[in-house]
Protein: Glycerate kinase
Amino acid sequence: MRVLVAPDKFAGTLTAVQAAAAIAEGWSRTAPGDIIEQAPMADGGPGFLDVLQASLGGALHAVTVSGPFGEPTPAAILLVGDTAYVESGQSCGLHLTGRTDPERATTRGVGELLLAATDAGATTVVVGLGGSGTTDGGAGLLAALGATADCPLDRGPAGLAGLTVVDLGPARARLDGVRVIAASDVDNPLTGLFGAVKTFGPQKGLVEDRMPVVDGWLQDFAAIADRRLALEKGAGAAGGLGYALLLLGATRVSGIDLVSDAVGLPARAAAADLVITGEGSFDFSSRAGKVPYGVALVAGSAARPCIVLAGRVDVGSREMRALGVESAYSLVELVGEERALADPAGALAELAARTARTWSR
Structure:
């Protein structure tokens, strides 16, 4: 039996590469004769560069950029020919903010990554959006590229209070002749009920009574910069980084689709008998551009069954079918939360070994 293992990261415990290896190792315990192919995946968030380099090759260039509070932060760009890949979470990720002071966290470092990419000779820059701890509408990114305003653009959303004028001309000129692609895992608008603040603010540390204030700052920013683009799909990605990139003329694409094409997932799924994917928490929000849904769509197009191994499974059988998934298996349900966190790779391998008893012919 040919098995394709294509998981996302298990946030906070395993990278996608580690998760794929654990699943493959566990599956082989039960079904040593099966042919297992590993295809770690990403949707634009953490692990984006690792997954792409594993498939595309290229060279990683180490750089130091501004972190979410201005501190020097190590990051990298992946250069493949004249195309550079950038992972926004490396400079403004949730792991760097610790969910603290979200009104001050800036995306300036992402703009510095763009500058590093163009300085390295890239004529196309693909920015992976996801896992950010910021909600500044990408104002910090614009400041790094030369945009000016009558308020500081790189002091987080709080810096936008009282904004009345912004000049994006220098930032657009800095990227003249460069094609920018925004690869995001969500399609939310910038503001409003389904915007960056209301949907993702709490996970970044924004408290309920501050969310209307922060959303108001972003609305004012959009009214001055371009209200229409604030409504575009993906404008709310990564706390509004998607919006800033759209202001610069970027093309928005699905992160999972971009990675799927890069790793040749459709052809690899067609050659398999079973496709396995996974993530830390498998729930109905996974339908919003997340890896399991994207992998399941590819498997469905190839008429191959797809199953999910996840830390938690919070969907029923009907929801699974809607996501194109045959079955889903929970790590926490098998070994308990304490073991799942203490030994995630071992526990995931154990879950894979047990699942193989049902699925391996």
Summary: The mean pLDDT is 95. Residues 344-359 form the longest helix (16 residues).
